[in-house]
Specification:
- The chain is α/β, with parallel strands linked by helices.
- It has 14 helices and 16 strands.
- Strands 2, 3, 4, 5, 10, 14, 15 and 16 form an eight-stranded mixed β-sheet that branches. Strands 1, 6, 7, 8 and 9 form a five-stranded antiparallel β-sheet that branches. It has a three-stranded antiparallel β-sheet with strand order 12-11-13.
- β11 and β12 form a beta hairpin.
- It is globular and about 60 Å long.
- The chain starts with 8 loop residues before the first helix and ends in an 18-residue tail after the last strand.
Length: about 400
Amino acid sequence: MRSDADISGDELRHTLRVRELIAGEIAAAGGWIGFERYMDLALYAPGLGYYSAGARKMGAGGDFTTAPEISSLFGACVAKQCAEVLRAVPEGSILEVGAGTGRLAVDILARLESLAQLPARYLILEVSADLKERQRTLLHAELPHLRNRVVWLDALPEPFDGVILANEVLDALPVTRFRWDGTVFEELGVAVRDGAFLSAARPADPATTARCKALMANAMLSEQGRHGTGALDGYTSEYCPRLQSWAAGIARSLRRGAVLWFDYGLPRAQYYLAERHDGTLLCHFRHRVHDDPFRYPGLSDITAWVDFTAMAEAAGPANCHLAGFTTQAFFLAGMHIDAEMHAFAGGDANRFARLANEARQLMLPGEMGERFKAMAWRRGVDLELSGFALQDLRHTL
């Protein structure tokens, strides 16, 4: 990571404004705020947070690269899954939550047009003003004839028929961090010392303690089996208090159709293992991964892996059926990514080789293939989704 002296003057002034905002809230709260609140401010404070301000976030000049940025094969496969739902929901639309650069929307619309299965509308719900502008620019440049079909929203539509998409959105929801000191659970928050943010612990309240005990049951059992004790001194992890209510809120507008979630994460039994003793919190700054959420607030992305068991538990209260859970690799294989490669290449051997390399990044276990998962909810329709036909991991949830 670079020092503050190496970032631009505008970047330094921006992160100092974010630091000042957060420090003021810590002072007003008596010297401590929970990590969830810190992450909320660092990412979403109006006009200042990472996703609310104007920093370039995705792609070659950004901080990280998503699957749609790696290859249009991803969007083509998602489009074919959408087409299955749209055929079952006449006049259905697509709603993408957090559309990034707009690349996924472009690829989905282009492929659906070739399938003669365009949605009635392509709706985008986006909190970032600069990303919204990038989305408009890309869509209008690459698909000008479809520009009137794309609509940007400030709130969820209701009622909604069709497909709701969320690609790499869940991982950016603020999390609560906790630690087990061998005797009690502590909640990790943020304090200020000598002008710098630092992690500070306090005893967890009864509700947080009960939540942590339930989440960590597997970690304690596995440690007990090895050492004859349930103590995991210093075990640190996180959970997302708003994950289930947020996901259910997104699905609330759906009347008939499906919700497709794509993100990196694990079933709970694998998430909270003894060997994962530092949690999954990650930060991204210009394609570098680091583990310091206090470095460059407002300039760095902060994420945590998704507890997909929590997502499965949220489907029922959201009045949805859990229709599928699999790895990204098996989802893409189920949507016949190999056929898409041949169609895109059109007999050009060099282009096929490039596409094959892109597919490897999307599918190999060491790349995105296993770390990233796909989950489907459905409501009001009874259909099997091809992307989940080759591998069913619902039993792991």
